[in-house]
Amino acid sequence: MKVMKFGGTSVGTAQRMKDVSQLITKDGESKIVVLSAMSGTTNTLVEISDYLYKKNAEGANNIINRLEQKYMEHASELYATDEYRIATQKFLKEEFNYLRSFTKGLFTTFEEKIILAQGEIISTNMVTNYLKECGVKTYLLPALDFMRTDKNAEPDFRFIKENITELLEAHPGYEIYITQGFICRNAYNEVDNLLRGGSDYTACLIGAAIQSEEIQIWTDIDGMHNNDPRVVDHTEPVRQLYFEEAAELAYFGAKILHPTCIQPAQFSGVPVRLLNTMDPAAPGTIINNDIQKGTIKAVAAKDNIISIQIQSSRMLLAYGFLRKVFEIFESYKTSIDMVCTSEVGVSVTIDNKAYLKEIIADLMKYGTVTVDEDMCIICVVGDLSHANVGFESRITQALKEIPLRMISYGGSNHNISFLVKGTDKKRALQALSDTLFKN
Asked: 276 and 218 in contact (C-beta within 8 Å)?
């Protein structure tokens, strides 16, 4: 059984819902389909929550009314029969009355998470009803019945596996099983969400739990490209990626995936395929546990990086200096991307400046601190094992005209990273494409 995930854009209008329904039923095979909220809905639900935090019930109700009208119009366009149109409009009326009920009492993060869950609940009910109207044997599989996180807010994989298996066995013989992405319950049985990767994470957790034949992530782009198509001319889709290569690209700027969402699939050995709803015939990108030896696959860039350099003569042969430096970042819950060290200094990069002033103040106890903002990490991914002699020189030769502030190599066999000024990003990405991928 395959797992297919469609994001908010793919179900963003009544016509898109029809297109997705046709796509998931064309082969007649049984599958689980994970849907996001209709595009823009989650942002609107966040706006409603903001009004409720401010105790502005009138503002919240105005937004709720506008959103309800929008959905009623979608329902009128989506269904051909009175039976399913009226049933769905009744469901929508109940949903929006439920949202209005939150304007009359105490509002906390608990209520906010319930509100944020309604976008996926609405979209999955609408598509389920449409498929039933089309005569497709469809079952709505509520994510809140099987998707759960533990006390560390990590997916409770054993619970997920046991409960989704039980639900599927209790409802056999359906062609399509529809479920919600993003939403879950936490260890205390409260409505919550998966945060990282959202609906993609849901799809990969389900695929791993049922040992799916394949997990398909459908977006509005033809797979993962070998460079950023928004910045570089003539990029091309990468047809195959090793799981670790895909994770590196996702972490360093390839927006099509969240870096952690494919981990469940990787650990279970289930391939993930990235496909394009606008061009369903395109082959997309397959991500699996196969390594293509001797190949540089792609380039990505991560913006808004801050470089911090700590220099100290006391560091020379000093025991525990690096530990003290890293403990400062840990104390402010700020992760480090790149690290370079010398005999008298250490340079690191971060992408979160929330506690930058406090971090700098603490680091100044140990040495002279220099900070550069508006930097960019350029990441080249592929089979970059030390055995591939000359790969690193090809990459650095491509960047011969670009001032490089830091280079990180050796932490992974699949990544070499460079720190450059943000203003040099486009030149660097284009130079790498011209050297590494231009035939």
From this structure: yes
State yes or no: pLDDT of 316 exceeds 60.
Answer: no
One-letter amino acid for residue 314 of the chain: R
- Residue 251 CB partners (closer than 8 Å, separation 6+): 259, 302, 379
Query: Which residues share a beta bridge with 380?
Result: 299, 416
Query: Helix 14-25 to helix 109-133 angle, to the nearest 10 degrees?
Result: 60
Angle between helices 109-133 and 41-53 (to 10 degrees): 150
State the pLDDT at residue 196: 64
pLDDT of residue 439: 60
- CA–CA gap between residue 131 and residue 219 (Å, rounded): 21
The predicted pLDDT at position 318 comes to 65
- The angle, 0 to 180 degrees and rounded to 10, between the axes of the packed helices 157-170 and 198-209 is 70
Q: How far apart are the first and last CA of the chain?
A: 39
Beta bridge partners of 41: none
* Paired tokens of 255: 């927006």
The per-residue pLDDT for 107 is 95
CA distance linking residue 433 with residue 421, whole number of Å:
18
The contacts of residue 148 (CB under 8 Å, 6+ apart) are: 155, 156, 159, 160, 163, 184, 185, 186, 187
Q: What are phi and psi of 84, to 5 degrees?
A: -80, -30
Confidence of residue 391 (pLDDT cuts 50, 70, 90): confident
Distance CA 168, CA 163 (A): 9
352 pLDDT above the threshold of 60:
yes
CA distance 295 to 214: 24
Instruction: Retrieve residue 33's tokens.
Output: 């389909």
Mean pLDDT over 329-334 rounds to: 96
Per-residue pLDDT at 313 exceeds 80: no
| Chain position carrying tokens 């994470």 | 201
Q: Is the pLDDT of residue 98 over 80?
A: yes
Predicted pLDDT of residue 403? 95
pLDDT surpasses 70 at 234? yes
Residue 188 has pLDDT above 90, yes or no: yes
Residue 414's contacts (CB-CB under 8 Å, 6 or more residues apart) are: 242, 244, 245, 248, 381, 382, 383, 384
* Distance separating alpha carbons of residues 145 and 112, to the nearest angstrom: 19
| Burial status of residue 379 (CB atoms within 10 A of its CB: 0-12, 13-18, 19 or more) | buried
